[in-house]
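Q: What structure does this chain adopt?
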Amino acid sequence: QIRNQVDRAESWPQRARVQLTWWKQARYLKRLIEPMRVTTVASAREREVLAEIGVDPERVHVVPNGAAGADLERPRAVAEPPRLIYPGAITYAPNLEAVVWFLTAVMPRVRAARPDIELWVTGDTGDLPVDRIPNREWARFTGRLPDVKAAVGDSAVTVVPLLAGGGTRLKVLESMALGTPVVSTTKGAEGLDVEPGVHLLAADAADDFADRVLEVVNDPARAAALSTAGRERVRARYTWDVIGNDFCDMVARAVAAGERT
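A:
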């Protein structure tokens, strides 16, 4: 996330501060990793960043985030009127930024076409002044839910309008596993082995994002195709069983290599 902030700095003093912070962080990471036989990261992009700071990429392995295999069989019952959901606590700054951008720039176009649509935002709100968020009347901040998966599974679309952050998004994988179509920014889907237009829909401009949301909500066949393709992608690549087996194989290879040296 610190590395991403360099590109988003709005002034040269801010850029200089962030670049200095990243330089310190990069030195620390390199020193920390150098004595390790194997280092794991959550995405190929993070592996590339470590290579950029001088870490041997051959000793860095991608162990992605995943979803529960049981979610693949969980039934859906899409609520009426259809709702959108963003599963993420706004106490985390990139989540708050995403929600504010969505409600300010995207939701007006969605509501103009479908005034019955509401956005649910799950997770803790802390002491944030939620009532001051633009277009607050179009959103329901649920707080912590006893079963957030039920809320995701019953939603028409999971929106992931992230503009910043690092790693990969559990919210994308969990939504796909539950069969809920996903509309995401490029940043929101970063690091995941998914194909936009097949496993999820992607857009970065506000109007395009709104159009993709409406495409899913207004076309049941399109929604069903995304639901099926998303679940199959998780089944093949992102269940914890698949990831766990790959991780164990990686550890075994690392141990064997150490025994030979």
